[in-house]
């Protein structure tokens, strides 16, 4: 989201224009695939209450959030004008060993170097809803298999809200490093204060939805990083 603040036009091109070109290709090819459209919790901005459900207000606070909201409109257009089955997947905080950027990777890097302090952007009290990429993949396969004609919006998350500082503490335990945490103390522009998903709709569409716990997912991710 931060990158969209420094170059919003490029973010618009990468998101909305890429999707627009994809949809035009589908139209010209005369095919009707199931479209799994990757959206984001960023469309909610700072929700007034948590957990936030799919009918919560759209109130982005970053160009990235606005552009994801625009992509959702394009997805709805494709469903209504082209007759596609569209599942708009609002991802919350996805992580995994291939994602060598953002919070979890940054904390791991600091835990495995000589730096005596782990520095966190923001206050440390910000909360997120983390979901391991393996669970994301399983959820997407199931959603594609049950997609209905029209557009369906689904929060794709674990349904568990956890603070950034709690994540760092759990990673300290897993890596067995007792380093001090230091927070910069002010929220970063464009970053929401708190996120937590209502996953009732996901559970109804994917019966038995039971993602890994954050502890399990972090342990798996850190083990894969340590082995490379």
CATH superfamily: NAD(P)-binding Rossmann-like Domain
Q: Total helix count?
A: 8
Order of helices and strands: HHEHEEHEEEHEEHEHH
- The number of domains is 1
- Do you know the CATH architecture? 3-Layer(aba) Sandwich
Structural topology:
Layout (H helix, E strand, L loop, with lengths): L1 H5 L1 H22 L4 E7 L22 H20 L2 E7 L1 E3 L6 H10 L5 E4 L6 E2 L1 E3 H13 L4 E7 L5 E2 H12 L4 E4 L16 H6 L8 H13 L2
Parallel strand pairs: 1-2, 2-7, 3-6, 4-9
Antiparallel strand pairs: 5-8
Helix pairs in contact: 2-3, 4-6, 6-8
Summarize the structure in words:
- The chain has 228 residues and is α/β, with parallel strands linked by helices.
- The protein has a single domain (2-226), classed as NAD(P)-binding Rossmann-like Domain (Rossmann fold, 3-Layer(aba) Sandwich).
- The protein has helices spanning 2-6, 8-29, 63-82, 102-111, 133-145, 164-175, 200-205, 214-226, and strands at residues 34-40, 85-91, 93-95, 117-120, 127-128, 130-132, 150-156, 162-163, 180-183.
- The protein has a 3-stranded parallel beta sheet, sandwiched between helices.
- Helix 2 packs parallel to helix 3 (63-82), helix 4 (102-111) packs parallel to helix 6 and helix 6 crosses helix 8.
- The longest helix is centred in the N-terminal third of the chain and has 22 residues, at 8-29.
- The relative contact order is 0.19.
- The mean pLDDT is 95.
List keywords for this structure.
228 residues, alpha/beta, Rossmann fold, 3-stranded parallel beta sheet, two-stranded parallel sheet, 44% helix
């Amino acid at each position: 989201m931060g990158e969209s603040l420094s170059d919003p036009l490029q973010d618009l091109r990468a998101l909305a224009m890429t999707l627009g070109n994809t949809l035009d290709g589908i139209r010209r090819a005369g095919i009707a695939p199931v479209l799994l459209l990757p959206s984001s919790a960023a469309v909610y901005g700072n929700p007034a209450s948590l957990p936030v459900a799919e009918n919560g207000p759209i109130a982005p606070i970053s160009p990235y959030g606005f552009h994801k909201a625009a992509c959702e409109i394009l997805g709805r257009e494709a469903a209504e004008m082209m007759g596609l089955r569209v599942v708009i997947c609002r991802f919350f905080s996805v992580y995994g060993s291939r994602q060598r950027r953002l919070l979890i990777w940054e904390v791991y890097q600091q835990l495995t170097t000589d730096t005596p302090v782990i520095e966190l952007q923001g206050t440390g009290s910000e909360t997120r809803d983390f979901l391991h990429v393996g669970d994301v993949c399983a959820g997407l396969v199931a959603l594609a298999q049950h997609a209905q004609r029209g557009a369906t919006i689904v929060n794709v998350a674990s349904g568990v809200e956890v603070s950034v500082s709690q994540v760092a503490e759990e990673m300290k335990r897993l890596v067995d490093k007792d380093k001090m945490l230091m927070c910069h103390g002010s929220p970063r522009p464009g970053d929401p204060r708190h996120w937590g998903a209502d996953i009732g709709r996901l559970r109804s569409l994917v019966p038995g939805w039971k993602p890994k716990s954050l502890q399990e997912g972090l342990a798996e991710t850190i083990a894969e990083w340590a082995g490379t």
